[in-house]
Each structure stands twice: as C-alpha cells, then as structure tokens.
C-alpha cells in the first residue's frame, strides 16, 4: 500500500500501487493544480483526516458541469483527490503528487486533456 499526505499531513490517503500509468491531466483546472492523477475504485482508497489538528479538514471545489468534487486540505491548501458528485460513480482520483518523491519517481505517467 502507498500513503500520500498533504503538506501539513492533516490528510492521509492510503491506496494500492497503481496498475495503470498516472494521468497528468491538462484540462484547465488540473493543469493549474499541477495534479498527477491515479484512478481507483472508491472502495480501494482510505482517506484519513486528522480531526485533532483541523476542524474542517478539507474544502471542496466544484466547477463547470459540477460532476467532480476537488478536495483540498483546509490547513495547507494541497489538492489531495477528487470524487464524483454522483456517489454511485465507482471511481475516484488520488493526486499522486502527494506521495513522497521517491515513490512518485518509480511510477509511469501519461498526459491527457481530461480524466
């Protein structure tokens, strides 16, 4: 299992190693975030929020067609993951840039204009 954290470590995300290349999405929002997405079934990802340090552990940003919730740490501002607004959608994206650099360098990436 891999563990990604925001900068202040108030949010940790635990997930298996990716089986597909990471996606450097170049859409207007992801390009600005600098995100590198790993996609998983929602059931395979555990999000752990440190309630002792952060009263509102993450903020949610919706834009455009409002199909994706972009989550960020309210304390340090790192964009950690996205989830579909339709909770029946089975996948989510984890921002692999929240991994330690040594873990990230070993993973294959690709570029696209959208998820």
List the helices and strands and how they pair.
Blueprint: E1 2-5, E2 11-15, E3 22-25, H1 28-33, E4 37-41, E5 46-49, E6 58-61, E7 68-73, E8 79-84, E9 91-95, H2 101-105, E10 109-112
Parallel strand pairs: 3-10
Antiparallel strand pairs: 1-2, 2-5, 4-9, 6-7, 7-8, 8-9
Task: Give the gist of this structure.
The chain has 115 residues and is mainly beta.
Number of helices: 2
Biggest sheet record: 5 strands, antiparallel
Query: What spatial form do the alpha-carbon principal axes imply?
Result: globular
- Uncertain segments of ≥5 residues (pLDDT<50)? none
CATH architecture descriptor? Beta Complex
- What is the string of SSEs from the N terminus onward? EEEHEEEEEEHE
Oligomer: single chain
Helicity range of the residues?
Answer: under 10%
Mean pLDDT: 87
Q: How much of the sequence is in beta strands?
A: 35-45%
How many beta strands in the DSSP annotation?
10
CATH class: Mainly Beta
What count of structural domains? 1
Report the end-to-end length measured between terminal Cα atoms.
23 Å
Domain CENP-V/GFA: 2-115
Pfam families: GFA (PF04828)
Keywords: Metal-binding, Zinc
GO molecular function, one term: metal ion binding
Structure write-up:
With 115 residues, this protein is mainly beta. The chain has a single domain, classed as Metal Binding Protein, Guanine Nucleotide Exchange Factor, Chain A. It has two helices and ten strands; from the N terminus they run E-E-E-H-E-E-E-E-E-E-H-E. It has helices at residues 28-33, 101-105, and strands at residues 2-5, 11-15, 22-25, 37-41, 46-49, 58-61, 68-73, 79-84, 91-95, 109-112. Strand 6 (58-61) and strand 7 (68-73) form a beta hairpin. The radius of gyration is 13 Å and the shape is globular. The two termini are 23 Å apart. The mean pLDDT is 87.
